[in-house]
Design a protein that fits this description.
This protein is α+β, with helices and mostly antiparallel strands. It has helices at about 10-20, 30-35, 55-65, 120-125, 145-150, 160, 195-200, 235-245, 260-270, 290-305, 315-330, 330-335, 355-365, 395-410, 435-450; strands at about 25, 45-50, 70-75, 90-95, 100-105, 110-115, 130, 170-175, 180-185, 210-215, 220, 225-230, 255, 280-285, 310-315, 340-345, 370-375, 380-390. Strands 15-12-14-13-17-18-16 form a 7-stranded antiparallel beta sheet, with helices on both faces. A 5-stranded antiparallel beta sheet has the order 5-6-10-8-9. Strand 17 and strand 18 form a beta hairpin. Helix 1 packs antiparallel against helix 3, helix 9 (about 260-270) packs across helix 12 (about 330-335) and helix 13 runs antiparallel to helix 14 (about 395-410).
Length: about 475
């Protein structure tokens, strides 16, 4: 286990000189504000630094490397697995002040951004040029591109268009010793050397600190058709998901909500969802107008064959927003439905979605912990929320046993324990279930090469006993 240095007043003054007094924080109130993310965990750092350019990040890391001080890069703190909290104290490196869109290049279908750019701000900026950046996490109004890159975040549009990793062409990043590394290029095809860009994307701040990102853009679809379907059973809705994909359709979005999700959303919003609704699918088809409408009509036939008793299609943007309201309300609704929640984002082969929903419900009943299941079912990604009434030891032990059963089942059926939230701190006990031992060992060796002193986001992704 790594031994870490202490942040003396002398070292603090060195760091304060780099970022300036207004970007150096250590008051108790400020430390508490950075002690948590969207997970249930709480760990206070020793100081918070807010660099404004890459040179400052490099100088900070040189000092941290010299003194063996832990450093945790952080965006907006919207992660759900404890990835941006500091388990070992040290420095939280808040990247939110590096928030400029450096360029949008329609002719090259790329944009260059700093890591603190809010995802929705990038969406708006490129849409002015008739372009589209598809990754759209639920927290897109507040999450940052740097955090998205660190987690390889997803979202509803990933079924058709892919996750963050598929849209990052190049990076600038600072290594543990302060070295500035550039990888990739502003081109769509690049097979020169090892693909360090894809290695760093999804590495959760354990290999380097991302300071600049080149993203790929695509033309905005000309038309989008949004459809909401009500089912009398969750099972019927999940079977419709598998049927849509098996019949060769690829909607841009195919979202699922189970009965628990629906009931908490109705209590939270008062939308008037009928009590007989036990499953909801929200589907979007896009492309040229004729093609999008034709696909939507054919998918409606499948929905009705699988038992949908109500199918509603949006005629305009206002109606589309209304249909999306229930799906967008799930996270805040679940926040009120339980004192604490743990959000898993497991992935199964799409054909196994009906089986998976039923099996997870069985596991929920076995452990006596209510569960809400929703998410991007079209690509097999289910968000399984454990609704806890406390964080005492008895609650956490029960939750851990339930998570072990869920992850064990998912891996036994060829799935994975995370599709977009990452491993962070929450999922470390289960990572070895789904990875080949040789692959896991190689990952740890890569970590040791990039970060030999283990100062970059220590305690994340890997069990501490796994050595190179």
């Amino acid at each position: 286990m790594a031994e870490y240095g202490r942040l003396t007043e002398e070292i603090k003054n060195e760091l304060k000189e780099i970022v300036g007094g207004k970007n150096f924080h250590e008051s108790p109130e400020e430390l508490v504000a950075y002690a948590y993310d969207a997970s249930a965990f709480r760990f206070k750092p020793d100081i918070i630094l807010r660099p404004v350019e890459t040179g400052q990040v490099s100088r900070i890391m040189k000092i941290a490397y010299r003194e063996k001080i832990p450093v945790v890069p952080r965006g907006a703190g919207t992660g759900l697995t404890g990835g941006s909290i500091s388990l070992k104290g040290g420095i939280i490196l808040s990247m939110t002040a590096m928030n400029r869109i450096l360029s949008v290049e329609p002719a090259n279908l790329v944009a260059v951004v700093q890591p603190g750019v809010v995802t929705e701000d990038l969406h708006r900026a490129v849409s002015k040029h008739g372009l589209f950046y598809p990754p759209d996490p639920a927290s897109l109004k507040s999450c940052t591109i740097g955090g998205n890159a660190a987690e390889s975040a997803g979202g509803p549009h990933c079924l058709k268009y892919g996750v963050t990793r598929d849209y990052i062409l190049g990076l600038e990043a600072v290594l543990a010793d302060g070295t500035v590394l550039r990888s990739g290029a502003k081109v769509m095809k690049n097979v020169v050397g090892y693909d360090l860009t894809r290695l760093l994307v999804g590495s959760e701040g354990t290999l380097a600190i991302i300071t600049e990102i080149t993203v790929k853009l695509i033309p905005m679809p000309k038309s989008t058709v949004t459809t909401l379907a009500y089912f009398g059973e969750s099972k019927s809705a999940s079977e419709a998901v598998a049927a849509i994909i098996s019949k060769g359709f690829l909607p841009s979005t195919l979202e699922f909500m189970d009965e628990t999700s629906i009931r908490v959303v109705e209590k939270f919003t008062g939308l008037g969802i009928p009590s007989e609704v036990k499953g909801i699918l929200l589907i979007e088809t896009d492309g040229d107008t004729e093609g999008a409408e034709k696909s939507a009509a054919e998918i409606e036939g499948i929905l009705r064959d699988k038992g949908a008793f109500s199918v509603e299609t949006a005629e305009d943007e206002k109606k589309r927003d209304k249909l999306w309201h229930s799906r967008r309300s799930i996270a805040p609704a679940l926040g009120q439905a339980a004192q604490f929640k743990l959000d898993e984002d497991v992935v199964l082969p799409v054909s196994l979605i009906p089986e998976g929903v039923s099996k997870i419900k069985e596991i929920s009943e076995k452990h006596g912990i209510p569960v809400a299941i929703f998410g991007h079912a079209g690509d097999g990604n289910l968000h399984v929320n454990l609704l806890l009434q406390g964080m005492e030891q008895k609650h956490m032990e029960a939750a851990e046993a339930m998570l072990k059963d869920i992850c064990g089942y998912i891996c036994s059926r060829g799935g994975v324990i995370s599709g977009e939230h990452g491993i962070g701190f929450l999922k470390i006990p289960y990572i070895s279930m789904g990875l080949d031992p040789a692959a896991l060992s190689m990952m740890r060796r890569i970590k040791n090469i990039f970060d030999p002193c283990e100062i970059l986001n220590p305690g994340k992704m890997f069990p501490p006993e796994i050595k190179a």
